TrEMBL record, chains A, B:
Amino-acid positions noted as binding Mg(2+) in the UniProt annotation, renumbered to this chain: 179, 209, 211
Assembly information from the UniProt record: Homodimer.
Organism: Teichococcus oryzae
Site (Important for catalytic activity): 52, 283
Record gene name: tkt
UniProt protein name: Transketolase
Amino acid sequence: MATIATLPDAADNPAIAAQEKILSLPLTEVRRMADAIRVLAIDAVEQAKSGHPGMPLGMADAATVLFSKFLKYDAADPRWADRDRFVLSAGHGSMLLYAWLHLSGHAGMAMDDLKRFRQLHSVAAGHPEYGEHPAIETTTGPLGQGLANAVGMALAERHLAARFGKSLVDHRTWVIAGDGCLMEGISHEAASLAGHFGLSKLCVLWDDNGICIDGEVSMTSSDDVLKRFQSYGWAVKRVDGHDPVAVEKALEGAVRSRKPTLIACRTIIGFAAPTKAGTAGSHGSPLGAKEADAAKQALGWNAAPFEVPEDIKANWEAAGRRSAGTRRSWLKRLANHPQKAEFERAMAGKLPEGWHEAAAAYRQRVAEEKPKAATRVSSQKALEVLVPAIPELVGGSADLTGSNNTNVRGIPVLSTANFGGRYVHWGIREHGMAAAMNGMAVHGGIIPYSGTFLAFADYMRPSIRLAALMRARAIHVLTHDSIGLGEDGPTHQPVETLASLRAIPNVAVFRPADAMETAECWELAVQRADGPSVLALSRQNLPALRQEAGENRSARGGYVLAEASGPRKATLIATGSEVQLAMAAREALEADGVPAAVVSLPCWELFALQDEGYRESVLGTAPRIGIEAAISFGWDRWLGADGVFIGMTGFGASAPAEDLFRHFGITAEAVVAAVRRKLA
Amino acid sequence: MATIATLPDAADNPAIAAQEKILSLPLTEVRRMADAIRVLAIDAVEQAKSGHPGMPLGMADAATVLFSKFLKYDAADPRWADRDRFVLSAGHGSMLLYAWLHLSGHAGMAMDDLKRFRQLHSVAAGHPEYGEHPAIETTTGPLGQGLANAVGMALAERHLAARFGKSLVDHRTWVIAGDGCLMEGISHEAASLAGHFGLSKLCVLWDDNGICIDGEVSMTSSDDVLKRFQSYGWAVKRVDGHDPVAVEKALEGAVRSRKPTLIACRTIIGFAAPTKAGTAGSHGSPLGAKEADAAKQALGWNAAPFEVPEDIKANWEAAGRRSAGTRRSWLKRLANHPQKAEFERAMAGKLPEGWHEAAAAYRQRVAEEKPKAATRVSSQKALEVLVPAIPELVGGSADLTGSNNTNVRGIPVLSTANFGGRYVHWGIREHGMAAAMNGMAVHGGIIPYSGTFLAFADYMRPSIRLAALMRARAIHVLTHDSIGLGEDGPTHQPVETLASLRAIPNVAVFRPADAMETAECWELAVQRADGPSVLALSRQNLPALRQEAGENRSARGGYVLAEASGPRKATLIATGSEVQLAMAAREALEADGVPAAVVSLPCWELFALQDEGYRESVLGTAPRIGIEAAISFGWDRWLGADGVFIGMTGFGASAPAEDLFRHFGITAEAVVAAVRRKLA
């Protein structure tokens, strides 16, 4: 099958010609192709008066070998599902990526775009931004994230190959990473995962230039990086990154390897810049006109700025078409493939037919059974319906499976023995998990979900932010969502975590109150194709508050769960486990002749999207009492200047949950008392 | 000197007796001491019906060797400055720590405290909480943090030894860590730092039990951990963790080592529990009465619950006094030491005399010079005054020195060649930096400060949270605090970061508007001994807005920077770089006959602490306009239901800063227009 996959279509002569041409280029021409990247990087950074020339200058040689002879892509269709993925983890070197996309003939990356590098509305943004250009596989810049995304992509490839077969899914993942990526902690989690899963189709080219921003890497690190990666089960190799033959040989080795491969490319940062090469000075600012000219002179480059000689352009365009035949063969295989429709649906991120009926039937069951259960357990019940109905759901937990309730009976574990499995034991690697999930989500074909404690969302936060920025569908199941977790104490008790997640644009934070809302929120999360979702779930049991199963009431973010029996004297607004307290308080108030309504607010972001009329009708004009076992930060928006908040004012404590709710004054009695004070 | 430091005071016979006794104990007695830890852990967890028996059962043998023969401490004075530090990084095994503290005779950890394990107000909280007991060196539970704290403690020891000499500072740092600690990314950053700094007095005992919560570690990790630590420059050793002789030999090796040492202690989790030992089932819940009894039987333990036979207690108490003579010798050396007062002042966290005069003189200079400068540059100017004036200030940057402006001319770099240096090149290790800083802060004698971009606060967040929980004085210099950083784009532009940090209890988030406020905020940060501070600083230049230098106006968190010329028609409330916009808008409004005041709000937390009268006088009753180049989350508190917010509504973009402020409508014109609409 492998030979079929890489054999060009014999009928497609231009493609064969491109492939033959590019594979037989003399070294001098390869070097000139690399120089084209270098010069465009210099020119664009000079023009922008801002940017990072050092990395493109240093890595152009190795990258040219990769882009022209190894990376499987067709510039005519950058979204070809079976393309190799290329991740520029050292995202500050974005001009390397943009120059390559331009030179290899990708639409949408014209010379004018390069001239507008780092300007408003340019696709050539300061760092590669997912969505700005179809060939940008992921957003990078925050160091180490791209590497970890790539591990997720490589894992996604293995899974989808198991699901759809190698004739449809058989591609590699290539990464260029810098010292920064490898010094970040996330690189440990990511590399360890890749080694554990034996992701042999993952290859990382490390720009081993010995320079960091503060000076020499040796000033801050004494790691033996190759030995370290060997300890994770990687194959490692060190080459002169400016020697295309050595790089080619190393990449061939990576293709043959049964392990993920790290290639240390010894390079000179700012290569060719006469005074700045080999120094931190070339890293993050323009070379300056004089140094730029001198660098071009050193390269023997005579063309005007933003001009590339035709022969070099022709070579690059041939590189961009090298796999065109491979793609056409693949398209033919797809056309005849029994799983064609399913594959295309999955890769497009569309949910399968029937899933919603299954979910609706489950909600009907919940309405009838009215289970008293922790929402983490209700989440598991929802997963028991959704995971079988939606084959793209692939998830797991960062070693808290039994606590997060993320597993589903009968769903096999994803492992080297069975890449088709759908349950992932992520290990104690929250950050690596979230970043790999981002990679899976942008790879396509997978809707990843995680599991950990809500308090540990902090460990994943840089990756959640990137999911939000990329609008990637990654779903985080975050249990033990308040002091309600009890004895583990303040380190494990989120108090500010809900606020801190609600603050991130594009993240939907769901905090359901009972089994019904949990089912509703899960439906909303899987349907939410344009951003990450968080499900904040209780450890402790909660009563069933909702009796009917028709409309997904959580879809509006907030709604009147129980209207007052007469003109409202108070509106009790709560989320999650505190909605039951609001209901109990309402009962006491009503019994005492104080008509009070209860508003459940499971998703602030969706509620904020409703029109003002709806929101005002829900929140009402009576005094508002907010109740959440968390700090008040952000609540003023819903409570107004006049509202009262019942919740936490600081960190929690270690004690049984009931004791804590009493100790911190988060009780129905406290709510009743607050209303009385307000009405007094 | 080393021999003097460890030689017991000859006049102190009981101490010598204790030392001799404990060092010559037969193995059977050592084992019974370990069993006392085991049994107390079993009993406390049973009593609490909650907790983690597996780790104490597994690590009791190795820990007993450490606590009785190596750890330098005196139960009579747990805050003795030159004690060895012990960090239970695997904080869930807290009963190991509490049992040891009780058995070794520490005051404040009575049997009654153990009986109240995990109950409200008990010092024996679910996880070890700094401040609950003087012998708890740091708060642990979130995995990997303790290990990284310990690196900071060991680095603090090296620095203070260089400053005060080995006769006052000569102690070791010991850690017990679990698989979770080592799988977390932070372990990479921390271990790499320790290796780079050659922290040979750091020793980590890894509870290598092969079990994680989801099952066997081999299910989720294939790392060769020892090889990995070797790659960082550590000495490594593997021993049977249940063999006290082997452990003792390994610890002796660690004491002799010129590198930090990792000792893999092969243990059986839940040791002695007949059915649960060696399984995840013993990790995180009570054994149950039957299994608990059987475990005690297997250990040959016949005492009633919470009872420890006198002979075992006597051995433990001897262990607790083993270094009493060493401490007395040290006290004598201290009494005669020329730096006694300075050492005591530094360790107590008191600022030196004269610092405030220097700071005040600097502010006077700022008032006269009225510099137009980025607040990151103003921060550097403040550091140029504070760092020489306060010897405890030891700081650096995560490889962004030139951008964060964290260095001070003439202050030497802290390195293996000069541990007395005070500038730390942390490398690209934000998380490790923040966690090590926590370790330095709780070690005492150092006020650590960091540097990175504000957007990357997310990488440090789990450690910032722990600093907040511990009320540790760690100061984070976070520059490039908005879209004002320009071309690097949305990955680097914080929009939600201010809100997310303001949400953490006990953190003071300072966002100064000019050089004067920057100086004021720095003073407040160094004075703030009971929690971490964040300084959010601009990349771009800002005008001098404050003309006078007397009172530290930032100390109240917010104040009227410019009062309206008549009865206020509007109050413009801003922070940091947007205060200048408010001032420009005010000028335009006043020129147009609309009296408007400008309120600068550099620190919300301090403003919230003011009495309501002050706050209302500052915020006024006129319509309020909030201006911050960030999202509005949290602003409603200051703006009221009726306010208007000018800021971001989502992520930023890549472009020159001025273009971005215009693009996102954060301009003086927009403020004026908002006021006009409001007044129309």
